Amino acid sequence: MALSKFEAACINAFRNGSETPARGASETEDWICFGFHILLRAGQMLRRNWAAGVRTSLQIKPDGSPTTTFEQEIESLVRDTLASFDPSATLIGEESGGALPTTGVALAVDPVDGTWSFVTGLGTYSTTLAVFRDRVPIVGMVLSPSMGKIGYAASDKQTRLVHLSVFGEPDSAADLVTRADDSAKVLVNLHPNRSAGPLVAALYKAWQDDRIRVVRSAGGSPSWALLEAAKGDFVYVNLWPAPAAQPWDLAAGVTLVRCAGGEVTDLEGKAIDELSHQGPFVAGTSEGARIRVIEIAREVL
To answer: pLDDT of 177-195, one tens digit each?
Structure first.
């Protein structure tokens, strides 16, 4: 399907070299335009710098997690652009930290979700952006720079997946969910985790018994995996260890799943709080598929 006029305007503003985001017909569309502007510029920066040798920029933070100088540069880009777009909005991020205010508009950004995937060239990293009003997510956006895809959703809009031209083919976009069938055999995407051994064994046994179709463990960005869940391709399972999630961790991806008609729940089937969740969660658009995976997980967890 072709881009909407709104999506085309956002993307063309970037391609035409605009230093400021396009504007939409509502506050929500304004923030989506802002998100397109930031994500496209971030994707351009990440692809160019990875080709130039990203390993030289790798640093290890005090908590043992990796970062790169490009991630700090992207947060600076967001901060500078936001200052002229909406000076009253608050920015918090994976690199700079900060607390989500109780009132007003705030943005949470993770410049590279899945840094090891970015550094090693696996391609399953993403850049994420979530917009909040009074601590409630109103826009969620996830970019895969390596694949040229952007998923976005808003509280008043269905999730959309935009495919950007890579080889000269037309840009395209589609509403999600594209596939959601309770009767289909389940495809499971299990996020890598050191303590996942018993669950891995249980899922592979279910695969062997033909209760699920396939198990994979792609790793990388949880936000990108949540977008795949929003597409209806996979049920995504993440054991999510301590500490609790921050607003830049899950909010964008969870918004995509929910606006596609799906849900993200704990192992009791209760919807998670994307701002502070801790512990295992399961995401998907098919309730039947989620329940089937939860039943397997609860046998061993």
So the answer is: 866 565 567 999 999 999 9
